[in-house]
Write a structure and sequence with these properties.
By secondary structure, the chain is of the alpha/beta class. The chain has helices at 13-16, 42-57, 73-86, 107-116, 127-139, 141-144, 182-200, 222-237, 254-263, and strands at residues 96-100, 119-124, 147-151, 169-174, 241-248, 268-276, 279-287. The longest helix has 19 residues, at 182-200.
Length: 288
């Protein structure tokens, strides 16, 4: 984890529990004991991440649609701190970021705006996700003036069609869709569920819902095709965006994406490993 990330483990649960809903108030008795916390419960995951946002930034409203993905705040913050390190220091407060696929949680713009004072344009192809994101912004006035949401009407495009020719951005960020099909998404979920059950030594309730709406997880061609398109479109928008970046969830996709950047003649690229708990993801960055 980036050394400047404010959400370092171990978490101070005594500090966080006042910001948790009543049904989790019993956790005060087991504060700082991670093994007793219901990490398998999607309701707790949302409540815990919301508590992080409340305690540090005063984000009072952060409701998500049913069965939506709940982003892990510490990991998302890590991405932004690594991005910050690449930006000219004297321009940090004036930074303008384009977030591709901002989602219903609008998490990256919230964190970047609250922590650094950056301005964001967040885009998404799903109007319902954008509507939920706008509700969050409307309820948190400090964010509303620094974050704008836009609808990408063409699901076969990433950048084309959402920017005017005179717009300039310091960086682009992206947390892409993972899977090629519904079947692949469910198979991955079942593997994770089985692993979690073994880890905690008992069975999770069979009523637990699939975590994440399918439009947040599945795209034609999966992560590789989506990011290949983003790389291709970045050539056209290079004069408008100083740094391009994206998370890459599948390590096997990384060599192919790096090769594509070289083939297209992109002069600068960099890969950074992001470690959070047992997970390792890769941050791919490039510039012209």
């Amino acid at each position: 984890m980036h050394p400047d990330n404010p959400f370092q483990t171990p978490y101070d649960f005594e500090k966080l529990t006042p910001f948790l809903p009543y049904q989790f108030s019993r956790l005060r008795d087991s504060a700082n004991s991670k093994s007793h916390l219901p990490w398998h419960d999607p309701n707790f995951i949302h409540a815990f991440n919301h508590a992080l946002l409340k305690e540090r930034y005063g984000i009072n409203h952060w409701d998500l649609p049913p069965n939506s993905l709940c982003p892990a705040v510490p990991g998302r913050m890590d991405y932004l701190f690594h991005l910050r390190d690449l930006l000219p220091p004297k321009r940090v407060k004036k930074t303008r970021i384009l977030d591709i696929g901002t989602g219903a949680s609008v998490i990256y713009p919230i964190l970047g705006s609250a922590e650094f004072g950056w301005n964001f344009i967040g885009t998404d192809i799903h109007k319902r996700s954008l509507a939920n994101a706008q509700t969050i912004l409307d309820a948190n006035s400090d964010l509303k003036n620094r974050i704008e949401l836009r609808h990408q009407s063409d699901p076969n495009r990433t950048l084309n069609g959402i920017l005017s020719v005179e717009e300039k951005f310091d960086a682009l960020i992206c947390n892409p869709l993972f899977y090629e099909s519904v079947e692949q998404a469910h198979s991955s979920y079942e593997k994770r569920q089985s692993k979690t059950e073994r880890a905690i030594g008992n069975s999770i309730s069979s009523t637990r819902t699939f975590s994440g709406s399918l439009h947040e997880l599945v795209t034609k061609g999966g992560e590789l095709e989506f990011l290949s398109l983003l790389i291709e479109e970045s050539l056209t928008h290079a004069p408008q965006i100083s740094f391009f970046s994206t998370l890459v969830s599948r390590k096997t996709n990384l060599p192919m994406l790096e090769s594509k950047l070289r083939t297209l003649g992109v002069p600068h690229q960099q890969v950074i490993q992001l470690h959070h708990g047992n997970k390792t993801r890769h941050l791919l960055m490039w510039s012209f």
